[in-house]
Amino acid sequence: MSTRPALTTKPISIHIPPTLQSFTVPLSSFLAMNAGYDRLVCSALIFSPATCQHYCHHQPHEHETKTPSHLLLLRRSSTDTAFPSLWEIPGGSIDEEDPTILHGLAREVFEETGLRLTRFVRLVGEAVEWTTTEEDVAVKKSKTVKWMKHSFEIEVSEVGALKGGVDVEGYLRALPVDIDPEEHQDHVWVTEEEVRGFYEEGVGREIVSKEQAGKMLEAFEMRRH
Hints:
Layout: H1 27-33, E1 39-48, H2 52-55, E2 70-76, E3 87-88, E4 91-93, H3 101-113, E5 117-123, E6 128-136, E7 141-156, H4 168-174, E8 184-190, H5 192-198, H6 210-223
Parallel strand pairs: 1-7
Antiparallel strand pairs: 1-2, 1-4, 2-3, 2-8, 5-7, 6-7
């Protein structure tokens, strides 16, 4: 759990497409509509540049090169008990205190990156499911907990659209990503090819799981359509 203070600046208007209205409910309501699940995790795919149709009206000239998409990855703390020093996308568990599922993801993104969510672009792929075993202190025996995870492409106020000719590497270095040192130790903006390479053994930047690497590549593919 992050100790970063809650977002206290002026609220930002968040765009939610009609296709995601089913996530504009509290956790308790969502779990009631999805019987059999006990916990919900959501993750965020944050790209630079932001989708041009939302942020700019610039039409590239023939001589301009299209800016490649870069995805934000965070490197987990070296002292983390699960997947230490591996790379992942921002996200975490939705809490009962979150007004809605989408508010919960906005909170997680801010806690882990300092970035303020402004737009939900789309749901990326199907939900992922898994089970864990936890100790039920009340009855002094273990219980099975069933988890569900959804991933969303989002946009944040600090990242906009880019025109051709921009120094992309310089722009990415200057973006104000403020990671929480209790959870992560570094961040990086990667291309689709780098994601593919990071999961290969021996590269040095390994992603936490094949499932998450697959979500990343699926999100890159969706941005092309």
